[in-house]
Structures are given as C-alpha cells and as structure tokens.
Amino acid sequence: NAGVTQTPKFQVLKTGQSMTLQCAQDMNHEYMSWYRQDPGMGLRLIHYSVGAGITDQGEVPNGYNVSRSTTEDFPLRLLSAAPSQTSVYFCASSYLGQGVQPQHFGDGTRLSIL
Amino acid sequence: DQQVKQNSPSLSVQEGRISILNCDYTNSMFDYFLWYKKYPAEGPTFLISISSIKDKNEDGRFTVFLNKSAKHLSLHIVPSQPGDSAVYFCAASETSGTYKYIFGTGTRLKVLA
After folding, report:
1. Is B24 helix (H, G, I), strand (E, B) or coil?
2. Phi, psi of B13 (to 5 degrees)
3. Do the Cβ atoms of B65 and B76 come closer than 8 Å?
C-alpha cells in the first residue's frame, strides 16, 4: 500500500540546471497537487491537476511546469533552477467530489539550489 | 496576501492539559476547513475537518470549532499527549470548482511530559 511516492528524497542542483521531481500515487485519485514548504510560509500550492490532461496554476507557479499524462503520475519540472527554489516539495493526491476530500501527501523532496 | 493565517508559530503545553491551536481566514468563500499534522521528515497527514454548515466536529481527543462570523477556527486536543508534538497546519478550500487548498503557516506544538 504505497500511497503517494516521491522521488528523489534529496537533491542538490546548480543554478541553471533543470530537473524533474517525480510523484506517483496508486489510489486512483483524480486530484493531484504540488506544494513547496518554506520556513514561515507554510505550504504553498504550485500547480494542481483534476485529471489526466488537465492542469492549472496555484499560488506560486512561476519557474515550474507540470503535466498529467496518466492518472497515477504528476511530475514537476524545474526548467532553470534558481536559489529561490531551494525548498521542500510535497506532492499530494485526493479524490474529487462533494464534501471534504482530504489530501494524502508524500514524504517530500528536499531540494537545494547552489 | 495570506488568506489563511496561523498567528502562533509555536505552543507548549503540559501533558494531560488542553492544547488550543488557532487559525483565521479572510476569504468568505471558503466552505471546507481541514487540519493536518506533520512530523519532521514526513508529509502532512489529515487529522480532522469541518464544513461551513457546522460549527463543531469531534473525533476522539480532537475537536474543531468554526466561527464563521469571526472567520476563525480552532483545534482543541484534550488531553494532550507527548506524541501530539508536531507542526499543525490548517487549510481551507472553496468548492466552487477551483479545488485549491490554501494552507496556513503552521503552529509547532510541543507537549511536555
């Protein structure tokens, strides 16, 4: 029962490098999202998706791209890494529908940009 | 513009006593509110939720209260246990079709044995 799996757990990049953070869920959830957690800032929504082929921007989308080609996978791409993108990144998923749909989170990817 | 605010970055409580964590919001369109708990090096886990049609929801030692007129919610933990020591996030969403969850900045709870 894997839930939400994020890889890698840790990564160090140089400014200007590109990278893809992987996220996979095995719960057949329609909704998937990416957050970044920074000290004093809480969890801020980067991008989200309500199904395969559908993505939308969150609060802090600049510098990040996403795609959703399957229900299971929702990769986050950093096109040209900047030190301001040093953060802990969390992927989450949930069902869609009426009422509260709590999100299930992965354990995070800690990313450092030098 | 922080739509969901947790003004207390940290809170210390004696074991067995009540812990009260507070959360304020500004968007009157929010209609679902959730609390998550986060341990170090782990992702947040869902704790309890409440919809805007209620003013209280209880689950074991955890109770969430919602005051819509004040745009304020609180999480009560009674009795507090050392294993409750974690960072607690409140989150809010509006179900008008955006499916966005907006999180607060978190409160670090330390329960002292």
Report:
1. strand
2. -140, 145
3. yes
What percent of the residues of chain A are helix, what percent strand, and what percent coil, each to the nearest 5? 5, 50, 45
What tokens does A61 get?
A: 């989308």
Token pair of B24 as six digits: 């304020």
Q: Do B51 and A100 touch (CB under 8 A)?
A: yes
Contact (CB<8Å) A102/B104: no
- Closest CB from A48, A90, A104 relative to B99: A48
- Reported as a single tens digit per residue, the pLDDT across A45-104 is 999 999 999 999 998 999 999 999 999 999 999 999 999 999 999 999 998 877 778 899
Q: What is the largest CA-CA distance in chain B?
A: 45
Nearest to A42 among B46, B89, B100 (CB): B89
| CB burial string A18-52: b at 16+ within 10 A, e below | ebebebbbeeebbbbbbbbbeeeebbbbbbbbbeb
What φ, ψ does residue B58 adopt, rounded to 5°?
-125, 140
The helix/strand/coil state of A1 is coil
> How far apart are the C-alpha atoms of A63 and A52, rounded to whole Å?
22
The reply to whether residue B105 touches residue A99, judged by beta carbons under 8 angstroms, is no
Query: Tell me: the pLDDT tens digits for B82-111?
Result: 999 999 999 998 865 567 888 999 999 999
- Please choose, from the candidates B5, B27, B22, the residue with its C-alpha nearest in 3D space to the C-alpha of residue B93: B27
SS3 A86: coil
The answer, for A88 touching chain B at a CB cutoff of 8 Å, is no
First to last CA, chain B: 38
